[in-house]
Amino acid sequence: MKMVFFDIDTQIDFMYPAGALYVPDAERILATVSELNRRAPLVISTMCTHSEDDPEFKQYPHHCVVGTIGQQKPVSLLREKRCTIPSRAEGVEQIILEKQELNCFSNPHLMPLLKELNADRYVVYGVVTEICVKFAAFGLLNMGKRVEILTDAVKAVDEAAAERMFSEFSAAGGHLTTAAQVH
User: Fold this and answer.
1) How far apart, in Å, are the Cα atoms of 50 and each of 38, 43, 84, 98?
2) For residue 74, which of 153, 154, 7 has the smallest C-alpha distance?
């Protein structure tokens, strides 16, 4: 069974208290996400890449502006062999998928990449549970493959909204599991 892990938006601006759009307690999942990324056969890591005047800043404070430290991923979450879309994905262990919108499927390269990879199973984790993780998980579910959210490797801003999302995800055929249960 071909499996692809999805590491959603684990960038410095979200993961650390000094970040521009810090997700409370997000730093607590860093070790788990790091371990998952290391053992993943292939990990697709989404990454906000905003310009200074990005339209998203009408809804959210400035964050993950291209070229800033906050836009980067923590080094502990990076694989040695990686590429950034739209690079070729052959032989890499990590793909950095840039996005300017909440939904990673807004990157026009994602669907062709997923079709090329032809995975049977997707494992999703990262931040923010009820926003970007939700878009990724439901987008992957729409492909008709097995999709798992690792509940101990996600962080929410709104816990009630995250719980509603988990219920909707399960009802739609998604699976909730933990990092220890991924084989």
Assistant:
1) 27, 22, 15, 9
2) 7
Domains in the chain, number:
1
Cα distances (Å, whole numbers) of residue 142 to 105, 130, 178: 11, 17, 22
Confidence of residue 95 (pLDDT cuts 50, 70, 90): confident
What does the pLDDT read at residue 40?
A: 95
CATH label of the domain that carries residue 134 = 3.40.50.850
DSSP 155-178: E-SSHHHHHHHHHHHHHTT-EEE-
CA atoms within 13 A on the CB side of 39: 11
Q: Which domain holds residue 9?
A: 3-181
Encode pLDDT of 75-93 as tens digits. 999 999 987 764 345 577 8
φ, ψ (nearest 5 deg) of residue 14 = -100, -30
> Which is more confident, 170 or 98?
170
Coil vs helix vs strand at 37: helix
